[in-house]
Automatic annotation (TrEMBL):
<dbReference type="GO" id="GO:0002223">
    <property type="term" value="P:stimulatory C-type lectin receptor signaling pathway"/>
</dbReference>
<feature type="compositionally biased region" description="Basic and acidic residues">
    <location>
        <begin position="12"/>
        <end position="25"/>
    </location>
</feature>
<dbReference type="InterPro" id="IPR050919">
    <property type="entry name" value="NKG2/CD94_NK_receptors"/>
</dbReference>
<protein>
    <submittedName>
        <fullName>Uncharacterized protein</fullName>
    </submittedName>
</protein>
<dbReference type="GO" id="GO:0045954">
    <property type="term" value="P:positive regulation of natural killer cell mediated cytotoxicity"/>
</dbReference>
<feature type="region of interest" description="Disordered">
    <location>
        <begin position="1"/>
        <end position="25"/>
    </location>
</feature>
């Protein structure tokens, strides 16, 4: 019985250490994806703004 508890305790510690390692990685991945999405959205806004400025200039030139 003592060996089973020791094994269970060791197994539990290994699982806990794996959870600690997995959480930061998944958080970093989430942040990375969010940063990529934000950069993409900012780029799209810049392109849209430039297109609107170009359209506005073309409208006044005609």
């Amino acid at each position: 019985m003592n060996n089973a508890r020791l094994t269970w305790k060791e197994l539990s510690q290994v699982k806990d250490s794996q959870r600690r390692r997995v959480k930061p990685e998944s958080i970093n991945r989430s942040i990375s994806v969010t940063e990529q999405e934000m950069a993409h959205a900012e780029f799209n806004l810049q392109v849209a703004s430039q297109e609107l400025q170009g359209t506005d200039k073309n409208y006044h030139c005609k």
